[in-house]
Predict the structure.
Amino acid sequence: MSEAGTRRRARGGGGAARRAERTSVRIEAARFIERNIPNFEILNEEALQIIETNAETVLEEIGVNFVENPAALDLWREAGADVQGERVHIPRGLARQLCATAPGSFTQHARNPDRNVEIGGNSLVLAPVYGPPFVRDLEGNRRYATLSDFHDLVKLGYMSKWLHHSGGTVCEPTDVAVNKRHFDMLLAHMTLSDKPFMGSVTEPSRAQDSVDMCEILFGKDFVQQNTVMTSLININSPLTFDATMMGALEVYAANNQACIVSPFIVGGAMAPVSVAGTLTQVLAEGLAGIAYSQLVRKGAPVIMGAFVTSIDMNSGAPTFGTPEASQITYGVGQLARRLGLPYRSAGGFCGSKLPDAQAAYESANSLNVGLMSGVNFMLHACGWLEGGLVSDIRKFVMDADQLGVLHGLAKGVTVDENAQAMDAIREVGPGGHYLGCAHTQANFKTAFWRSELLDYKPFETWAEEGARDTLALATERARKLLNDYQQPQMDPAVSEALAAYVAERKASMPDSFT
């Protein structure tokens, strides 16, 4: 065969290989984000000291309620707090002293070690929407969520490259009894994905079920020595810690599992209307909750959280992507870093009823604030709609695609020899172009982030292909991802043990839908 024939065959083989690569199913998972950019700090030292002093005053003089939890009151008494009824007055400095034993960062292990995430320091871990009772499906119908919807969202999370975490209650499967659905949700996260996940917090016994299932998946000794779950512990703002959430925290902390201690703030309803006042309350609540986790088990992993939104003073509805919410998110980031604690906040928040321009504007504002404020764990990063009432499958795909922007921004600006591009500038010179130069050819595959969803084609091509808008493209992409989904492998013995545990526990209790 001639040299020319050899070259032709090589090119043909390469083209076939590239076509096969483009059409094959690839399940990519980006590593958690490590920031190479500075955090934005909105508060000066004087403001920080004022807020910290005021938070200590709140804890000492006003106090916090630990309701229907005598054991918690006993722990606080032993620690030196002044307990009056269910009101706990924490002496100045005590909560901060207790918080000092919480780790500044920790690893959450996934069943696939390649999916482990670091939470704290300069990291940012992205997790999907949490908690909505409704879904908007691929046909645009708004309805109560089902277990089938839950499975689809877990699969989409697994298939989403830029999402690091499978999350928790990605929607409420309302076709399963309330007292049993946590089994099905955990089983889905454990078997349909190999990314890290969250545990149940709706009742202390369900937190224990979560620990028990993890001991089947990972092994009992491994669970006791490592963090394999993160859970969301919301504070009943203002200044109230209820027995259900604290009971779940007690289970997780005692078993070395991470808790996000997160005030639930709607400014003007659950906190003052001013930014400084809200920051004071958030810090006081966070200090008290995190300190309590350390009373349960010194060194238990914990994340300082802040779910923050404002309120529309005409309708009373929560609003998202506002400058005040951004200011609070930035401020809590600074306060968390001064405590040396991982930080949870932000997400793809919006109040829109549809995945439209309002949803895009508000979500983009919230996502970028999360990156710049130093958030380490971002819940609700994709799929959130209608103030958190709805998990939208199409918006899930749209948001998940845009999370790639956060990865790109967080890289910072490289100034190594290749990035300086002096060879390219010399090669092209005045009046030329860079399309064909050696530097462009060497770097074109990785030079720019590119959406896997949005349309960049010329108008004529776009029109010929049906003039599809972003919603149509997201619908098509979601269907393709679900069609291409391939379940990650699992040891059959572990899979059978998990299924048997769930079946036995569900059979042991009657259905309850309350």
Remarks:
- Confidence is low (pLDDT under 50) at residues 1-13.
